[in-house]
From TrEMBL:
Region of interest: Disordered: 85-109
Organism: Dehalobacterium formicoaceticum
Biased composition range(s): Polar residues: 93-109
Keyword annotations of the record: Cell membrane, Membrane, Transmembrane, Transmembrane helix
Residues that span the membrane, as ranges: 39-60
Domain Lipopolysaccharide assembly protein A span(s) in chain numbering: 21-83
Protein name as catalogued: LapA family protein
Length: 109
């Protein structure tokens, strides 16, 4: 995870250096806007828009995965309950967090 952060910072630094070195004014037209603006702003706004789009798509994916995990957890719980109800009481071992007890039975002759 830290390596990803380092690469992101290096990329951001590279974009910032590129933008500052290309600070010439350019003519742009966007929807109803027509005008002259510094290329720095065009580059930085484009990178920012791209980062925002990637962020929103990743949030959508996270929500989808969270919902799927919740549904699978519910299904798992219901199947465990069904298994517990169907199995005879003698053969179903009790699930415990304690260490198994060590019981030794001596056989008397």
């Amino acid at each position: 995870m830290q390596i990803l952060l380092i690469f992101a910072l290096i990329f951001a630094l590279g974009v910032a250096i590129f933008a500052v070195q290309n600070a010439t004014p350019v003519e742009i037209g966007f929807l109803m806007y027509q005008g002259e603006i510094s290329l720095v702003y065009v580059i930085l706004l484009s990178v920012l828009a791209g980062a925002l789009i990637v962020f929103l798509l990743s949030i959508f994916k996270q929500i989808t995965l969270y919902r799927r995990i919740r549904a699978l957890d519910k299904k798992n719980q219901s199947l465990e309950q069904e298994l517990h109800n169907l199995a005879p009481k003698e053969t179903v071992p009790a699930q415990s967090t304690e260490a198994p007890s060590q019981e030794y039975h001596s056989v008397e002759q």
